[in-house]
Design brief:
By secondary structure, this protein is mainly alpha-helical. It has two domains: 2-49; 55-85, no CATH class. It has three helices and two strands; from the N terminus they run H-H-E-E-H. A two-stranded antiparallel ribbon has the order 1-2. The longest helix is centred in the first third of the chain and has 27 residues, at 2-28. The mean pLDDT is 82.
């Protein structure tokens, strides 16, 4: 019960202060002096809600950390070229027929 009483008394103090701040912000919307502050707060709110994209750093092939944009792009390019140009080992003992033309239709029975 003591917790509930403390919480209620805190709400009684916080609620009027919150209302006072909201009224002040609303009156500042029309004031040209405070418009730049309002726009700054709006930009900050939009930025906080955006998803994080990309990363700040990347570990290169040599094991060193890369932090600049160009270095990260070059590192990814090098990695993808290596990945796409790598020859895979094939088991020569397994032969598969080469199918030309459209694929056969798969039917449920």
């Amino acid at each position: 019960m003591e917790y509930k009483k403390c919480r209620q008394s805190a709400k009684r103090v916080i609620s009027p202060a919150k209302e006072k701040k909201q009224k002040k912000c609303a009156s500042d919307l029309n004031d040209p002096e405070h418009q730049s502050e309002i726009f700054r707060m709006a930009k900050q709110m939009v930025k906080e809600r955006q998803d994080k994209t990309g990363s700040n750093c990347l570990k290169g092939v040599s094991g060193k950390m890369i932090v600049d944009e160009k270095g990260m792009k070059d590192s990814w390019k090098e990695y993808m070229e290596k990945l796409m140009n790598e020859e895979n080992q094939w088991d020569i003992g397994i032969l598969a027929e080469v199918k030309e033309g459209p694929a056969d239709c798969i039917q449920d029975r």
